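Page 42, continued from yesterday. The earlier attempt failed because a stray header line got pasted into the input along with the sequence. Redoing it now with the clean sequence only.
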Amino acid sequence: MSIRLKTILGVALIEGSLLIVLLVTMMNFMRDSNYEALVKRAQTTATLFATTTKDAVLSYDLASLETFTDEMLKNPDLVYARVLSAEGDVFAESGDISHLKEPFLADTEVSLVDDDVFDVIVDIEEGGEVYGQVEIGIHIASINQAINQVYTWGMTLASVEMLLVALFSFLLGGYLTGQLNVLQRAAKVIGSGKFNISIPVKGKDEIAVVGEAFNTMAKNLTKTSQQRDSFEAEILELNRSLEARVQQRTEELQKKHGQLVKAFKSVKETQAKLVQSEKMAGLGTMAAGVAHEINNPVGFVKSNLGSLQAYSTNLTGYVHRIDELLKEHDDMQSLREALQAAREEFDIEYTAEDIDPLIVESQDGVNRVEAIVSGLRSFAREDDEQMAPADINGALKSTLKVAANQLKYKCTVHEDYAELPALTCNIGRLNQVFMNLLVNAGQAIDENGEIFIGTRFINNEVIVSIRDTGCGMSPEVQKQLFNPFFTTKDVGSGTGLGLSISHGIIEEHGGRIQVQSVEGKGSRFIVRLPVQSQQSTAAPEQQDQAEKTGQVQAKATSKPADSDQQTENSLSV
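This time it went through. Structure tokens are written below.
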């Protein structure tokens, strides 16, 4: 459907709807007004007729009533008139015989009349008493005819007006569609890619404004098209050199990647050497104590071996003497006496009683030496990168044996181990952490102190607590505690790398280490190791040492959360 037809139909529909509403409203108002006037006229006429005939009815003047009835019919549109007594007897009547013969039914509304006659009845009263009635009928055909004529005139005028509106709409639609066709043709030209176009603009109405806007748009599109062509040319030129630039950049990145791999490998090797060096330094510090620990069981094993050698000589001599006595004595009684003398000579009873304890004691000494050597071997071996399930409680006990000589003369060690699940870890590195914490705890105690070692499994974490009753640390020291090369020991007594390396090892296992300390009362180190976390050794690739140091300081000074408080309450040893 074209815009012209839409315009004509739309305007005609709107105009027709308004005219119909106006015509219906006008006709209803006219009909209601005429019907209301007719009802008032009928009531007034009937009341006047009742007033005129009242005296004649009271005096039974039938001649006068006939005269009044005839005179009443001279009113236009009056069909009949009738005067009745109070009992319903007819005093006088005049008018259309056909209506007079029909039963009288008073009408209340003109619209309900079905015989074109509006019937009205009025009582003849005097002093509140009814003496008769008058009935009249008014013809309403002339009123309906006038109303219908007006309706016909209104429909005619509405039709003419609609035709004029349709003609105006046709002309207006033709003008609008003509201008739109111009815009449409110009838009198709622009759609084909030709922006250098202009349409004629006439007048100053809205169509002219749209035409000017269209011409402005065409100019802007032309300018934009030129800029786009220029940009495309530049992009094509850049694309020609992009591949070479990408290749060059790729080669540079590969070269830098190789350098980073070498640097990372060098850092890893240096870190491993540093860790091993710190471990060996710790072993050097404990060497004298470990030698003393080994020397004690070796000494009594050596002494016991001397006693066992003497016992062996006695037993051998006793056996030879038995053989000789058996050859010399045939009498059983003399043989018994000789054997008894030999037993006393070689002290067989004492030898038999003392030999088993000596062997047990020697075995215990050998076991002690074996345990110390095993712990040293486990602690001293170079670490590999493999993770394996390990027993943390066993690792703590083994480490405690190695460090025993530094602790036992001035510390009482209390152990409280809970049942723990196997932890996938590098147990050699964790042993180094435990050794550092135990040695530091021992060095913090001058004399007659206590060290409390405890383990728990809480919130899917293996928790190790090492607490001492030593000198404690100030808040300033705690802030720098895990910084590399920071130490409170005398020159030559420490490298300042123990706790820094320990912190790095715990982080590699996905855990964290916390410190709580009060000057003059002691310190507590808490190591938390997640059981199901993905252990990673890639942290050095992602963080440099400065970033790690900042994180260490933040963690070392943080206060325990609710779960940490639960751990502290549980590890109350």
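Notes: The longest strand covers residues 129-139.
Reminder to self: strip header lines before submitting.
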